[in-house]
């Protein structure tokens, strides 16, 4: 049986679930705050996910999955000359005890090839995959609220489709 942890950004609750890709995976020792996904309009194929992560031990965020999207990736945005560029990255280090913010204009989660619009007030299931210093995997399952703007305490993020190149 695999131990995983479901965390709602507003109510923290632990549960045990079976059946992920690993023979044995412990719940990731990560605190999540201010998580949200930007709401979409019909026909929109991508959106961003934002949150603050604080690892209890050194970890690396190495993946993201969501049944709401055909593709879910870690992304970063960087200035190249006068142009803000976005690109997928394979890993994001999370130092122990330090808050790492996934926000617009920096590191964030990207959901692409959306299977349906994500209306305000809905929730998106996501799984974050981490590796520790021993390269042992852990997963964190999230129910992330969909909103048109950042919830109180979260960093506001402008619409993802403007002002940058891929």
From TrEMBL:
Q: Name the UniProt key words of this record, in alphabetical order.
A: Signal
The organism's place on the tree of life at top rank = Bacteria
Q: What InterPro entries does UniProt report for this protein, alphabetically?
A: LpqE-like (IPR007410), Lxx211020-like (IPR058248), PCuAC_sf (IPR036182)
The record ties this protein, via SUPFAM superfamilies, to: DR1885-like metal-binding protein
Residues in the signal sequence: 1-23
Q: Which Pfam families match?
A: PCuAC
Q: What is this protein called?
A: Copper chaperone PCu(A)C
